[in-house]
Design a protein that fits this description.
- The protein has 2 domains: 326 residues, Inosine-uridine Nucleoside N-ribohydrolase, Chain A (Alpha-Beta Complex); 88 residues, Immunoglobulin-like (Sandwich), CATH 2.60.40.10.
- The chain is built from 14 helices and 16 strands.
- A hairpin with an 8-residue loop joins strand 14 and strand 15.
- It starts with a helix and ends in a 9-residue tail after the last helix.
- It comes from Allorhodopirellula heiligendammensis.
- Pfam families: Sde182_NH-like.
- GO terms for molecular function: hydrolase activity, hydrolyzing N-glycosyl compounds.
- Keywords: Signal.
């Protein structure tokens, strides 16, 4: 409704107050509220999760948030989620005057859990965590609504939950911000692809970039200008957003936009979180040798190299695959081989070398050419992945090399105007009766 009114107002030259737009973004009376669990690497290597968490909490009155799980593959812990909740607590007096459906800060702290803090081993799972157990508990609740699991960081806790409780799979609707996260956690991803192909999942490897790339970037709509005008100085949440990064990144926010304005049951339809196509067979290349730059793989695919050790004298054979900023440990299954998995996150030629106590492998070099997916793949969805969705490979919907990103950036004016209205709630109490 808010998007419709905004469009009409622009055509007629009418200014629609931001507060009114924010009120109209509430679900209509009787409309289903979405159940949500967020898994985030907030506090890790990228500050954008703080921004996305701020955005999520100012919309907390229109979503049933059931879990906030810290799932980093590096630094970052549950206290970083609590840091944002503390700011929400400071702004709560103002927020609740706009809607009495905002959850109490104490309720949000109670559902904040610590998940996996390490990259999954080769098998894809390790042991249950507080986060994975909470995900299972939420999914098993007696509630007819699906549980939307928004993965902003590592996918390890989801993999562990599915391993421990495969019965929860039909209840889940997953939106996975892949790309760099898939690069760092290929084992958990491959476990899900191999063992749970019937999962309802959106694998957004590049579509999410449309939130901060493309669209109207002029003046106050630019990534930096928007933060200066509509976020900084808008309550404790706005100040935290600005302090962490004074320019829009919010790379995980499309997963929330998908629920706020779209048709979550049908990812093929337009939404603030993007528009997706049924997935073709997930790209995977297995080689029994060291890859070279003559070898090719689809971007965001999984390269697996299974190399012979050929040295029975080593009690503990070890090796690392060094690619750019990664040092990927090899897995030794005990069958005379060592295995590496690598996921390229960009369309380019990669070079790598091996560091090992295995003489035949030490200082070997190689590489791989990562290519864009052919457009025709969208016409060949995999029958083995009936509910798996991914980025649209059509170049008409790309922002540069980022496939699908334009299906998000096309709505930039709408979702940023709505977000700006929400940030006013942190700053100014409502003079009318709060919405229900």
């Amino acid at each position: 409704m808010s998007r419709f009114l905004t469009g009409c107002a622009k055509k007629l030259g009418i200014f629609v107050p931001a507060i009114l737009l924010a009120m109209l973004s509430h679900p209509a009376c009787g409309e289903e509220r979405h159940r949500v669990v967020v898994s985030t690497d907030i506090g890790g290597t990228d500050p954008d999760d703080f921004q996305s968490m701020v955005h999520l909490l100012v919309y907390a009155d229109v979503l049933d948030i059931e879990g906030l799980i810290s799932s980093p593959y590096g630094p970052g812990r549950r206290q970083h989620i609590e840091e944002v909740i503390d700011c929400y607590d400071n702004d709560f007096a103002n927020l609740k005057t706009h809607s009495d459906a905002y959850p109490m800060p104490s309720a949000l702290r109670a559902i904040t859990k610590q998940g996996e803090t390490e990259i999954a081993p080769y098998g894809g799972v390790r042991e249950s965590t507080e986060g994975s157990q909470w995900l299972v508990e939420c999914a098993r609740r007696d509630d007819p609504r699906p549980l939307h699991v928004l993965i902003w960081g590592g996918i390890e806790d989801l993999a562990q939950a599915l391993h421990d409780a495969p019965d929860i799979l039909p209840k889940l609707r997953v939106y996975y911000i892949g790309g760099p996260n898939k690069k760092w956690g290929p084992h958990a991803y491959q476990y899900i692809a191999d063992h749970h192909p019937n999962l309802f999942i959106i694998e957004a490897n590049s579509t999410y970039r449309g939130w901060f790339t493309g669209g109207n970037q002029a003046d106050a709509w630019g990534n930096k200008g928007f933060v200066q005008q509509h976020v900084a100085g808008h309550g404790a949440l706005g100040d935290l957003f600005d302090q962490k990064l004074d320019s829009i990144k919010m790379g995980d926010t499309p997963s929330v936009g998908w629920l706020l304005n779209g048709t979550p049951s049908d990812p093929s339809r337009p939404s603030w979180g993007g528009q997706f196509v049924r997935a073709w067979a997930r790209p995977y290349l297995r080689l029994d040798r060291v890859a070279t730059t003559a070898d090719q793989i689809e971007v965001f695919g999984i390269l697996e190299m299974v190399l012979n050790i050929n040295d029975d004298s080593l009690a503990n054979p070890e090796a690392e695959l060094i690619v750019e900023n990664q040092e990927i440990p090899g897995y030794v299954p005990g069958d005379g081989t060592i295995r590496f998995r690598f996921c390229p996150k960009a369309i380019k030629t990669y070079s790598f070398r091996i560091r090992s106590n295995i003489a035949a492998l030490d200082e070997q070099t190689g590489g791989i050419q990562s290519n864009a997916p052919p457009v025709t793949l969208a016409q060949a969805p995999s029958p083995n992945l009936p509910k798996w969705w991914t980025d649209d490979p059509d170049t008409q919907n790309a922002e540069g090399e980022h496939h699908g990103a334009k299906t998000v950036s096309r709505w930039r004016g709408d979702y940023l105007a709505d977000f700006a209205a929400r940030m006013l709630r942190c700053q100014t109490p409502s003079v009318t009766k709060p919405a229900h």
